[in-house]
Amino acid sequence: MTGYLSSCTVVVPTIGRPSLDVLLDALANSTGPRPAELVLVDDRPTGEPLRPERPGLPPVRVVRTGGGGPARARNLGWRTAHTEWIAFLDDDVVPDPDWYDRLAADLAALPDDVAGTQGRVRVPLPTDRRPTDWERGTAGLATSSWITADLAYRRSALAAVGGFDERFPRAFREDSDLALRVMDTGSTLTRGERWITHPVRPVDRWVSARVQAGNADDVLMRRLHGPTWRDRADAAVGRRPRHLAVTGAALAAVGLLAVGRPRAAGLAALGWLAGTAEFAWARIAPGPRDRAEVATMALTSAVIPPLATWHVLRGAVVHRDVPAWRGLPDLVLFDRDGTLVHDVPYNGDPALVAPVDGAREALDSLRARGVRIGLVTNQSGVGRGLITRAQADAVNARVAELLGPFDTVQVCPHAPEDGCHCRKPAPGMVTAACAELGVDPARCVVVGDIAADLGAAAAAGARGILVPTPVTLPAEVTAARHRAPTLTEAVEDVLAGAW
């Protein structure tokens, strides 16, 4: 089974909770072969660097998002990994001692049409008393479908759908949304035989009120997947209809009292009180019924219905018009002369290389999000005998020195009359770059300053963005479907999903 884990990267998004140390200790002490890499994605806006080093772990790499939520953190993790499989773990779970062995066995058992495999979850509950409302809610993870507390995906399946939808801002529904989109491609997901333990973390008494924000995410799920999404995602409706009714009764009581109808207002208030009492008892009855739990349930049961209703309405407004998630491209290819650096015709002198304004910052912003970048450049001066291939390569090396490394560099050394398949607008360099990095051309963007750049993109099945310069013909600007006034703005459009 060793070969299966050598083609797997484990990604753990974290906000630096103490539970991360428990997870890392468990992985360090687990039996079996190690994966190719462990990527810790630090999703804190600030903070001291993580110190994950300990004997027994696979090679560890730490990347930082600067804050952005679990969806963005997981996306950065899988985008910076290049193995066939990506196994996600949450930073508050404890894998079993044989987790590596069982993960390898789970992956080995999968046919090609299976895109992912979910681990099994146990949630330990107290044995000396009844569980609290929060403990019972956490226990629901044991039977939930497609949660990324422990879920391995093929990297190609993640790339095909753009990864996690970053419009889900919290650790809620983003994993179900991903699973539905992956299954919409015709792939299947299975449940494996490996196990993790998900302890119940300590919380304050108002946690059940705060999690009502997830109602807005449910609205987004409906917008994206239609009214049957709950059946497909195995997600219960819960008490939302009752919350709406209880909130309606409270609003009716206030409104009727305001218009001078006290009797009707009293009846509405009784309806609100009865609904709130029923909700509180439904949460108190199966619990420990101690004073603290009863007080917490009474207080939050009065607050939750209007909060849930508010978040439903907020979600209906915020998500009233949402396109399908496409995510970031897997690869952005840049023309060189006139796009990344100022154009010096037939340049063979590295000393003459001068980046355009904002080029380094633009490329670094792509690298920071895990997007691979490449160079695709026509160098007809080589074919015409004006410069040598070594000189062209020296200029490219200088570009990389000034702008940072490229994941692929493609050069066409032919003259226009040679009739090659690589010179833009032919697709050869774009398709070669995608093939080298294992990227679907449909997930690739080409940025250039003339129509030939966009033509190469279109011929390869990629997207093109035109950044006009003084040499760009007006007709080329008019014909370009996607264009941006500067390189910086072109990259900003890519990062915003406008590609």
From TrEMBL:
* Cleaved signal peptide residues: none
**What keywords are assigned to this protein?**
Carbohydrate metabolism, Cytoplasm, Hydrolase, Metal-binding
GO BP terms in the entry: carbohydrate metabolic process
Q: Name one Pfam family in it.
A: Glycos_transf_2
Name one cellular component (GO) term.
cytoplasm
The superkingdom listed in its UniProt entry is Bacteria
Grouped into one coarse class, the protein's main location is: cytoplasm
Composition bias (Basic and acidic residues) maps to: 44-54
Q: Region Disordered: what ranges?
A: 44-68
Q: Mention one GO molecular function.
A: phosphatase activity
InterPro entries the record matches:
Glyco_trans_2-like, HAD-like_sf, HAD-SF_hydro_IIIA, HAD_sf, Heptose_bisP_phosphatase, Histidinol-phos, Nucleotide-diphossugar_trans
Q: Tell me where in or outside the cell this protein is found.
A: Cytoplasm
Can you give the residue ranges of the Glycosyltransferase 2-like domain? Answer: 9-132
- Report the family membership: Belongs to the GmhB family.
Name of this protein: D,D-heptose 1,7-bisphosphate phosphatase
Q: Which organism is it from?
A: Modestobacter muralis
